[in-house]
Design brief:
With 234 residues, the protein is α+β, with helices and mostly antiparallel strands. The termini are far apart. Strands 8-7-6-5-4-3-2-1-15-14-13-12-11-10-9 form a 15-stranded mixed beta sheet.
Amino acid sequence: MRTHNLTRSLLAGLALAVSTAAFAAQPTPFTATYAVTSQGQPMGEATITLKSLGNGQYEYSNQMQGTSGLAAALGANSSDVTRFRWNGNAPETESYMSKVVAFKTKQRSMQVNWSTKQVSVDEGKGVTNYAAVPGMVDRNTISYALGMALRNGGQNVNLPVGVKQHVEQQQFKVQGSESVKVPAGSFQAERVARTDSDKHFEAWYVPAKYPLPVKLAQSDGGDLTLELVRYSSP
């Protein structure tokens, strides 16, 4: 009887541990605000939010507003909204909508049908279709997917990213630990760089504290640097 009870207790404890780990692995909603500069000059502010839609689905939004210089004069702003599902402790894109307003308005959309494993991309000049890849994200969620991979102990991270005509296998590697100072404070951060392209991408993460970088510098989509100002989570 004692052996039977002990076995039941161990199984119950294991089930609780698995349940707790699974719960802890779920994304936590947050709001993060960044100061945005271009070539060292103030440009605007970006607000990134993550919220749960229920049933294992989430919405990840990046809203950028020009508040200084030419960006403010032009009323420049951008909106990137991704809906993803949580799959294997990582985000997996279901849809992505992007809108950029400056001299003119530019829009793009991506839809992923995981039943047929097909991606449809519309940039206003016709629809492009290609095969989806498990674990695929979009360019909006790269920094978040990287943060979650680092939190899980990743040092060399491969991300399948849906772009205009295909899935691009992007490679990222932790380059080392560095001190970095941003408006939100001073941190000892892991510097991550993209290693498969000459497009400049560097991000400084504190994985145990934030799922997003405290600082990000990239050339793709504009020579921009984002520095964390504040972060809140329920």
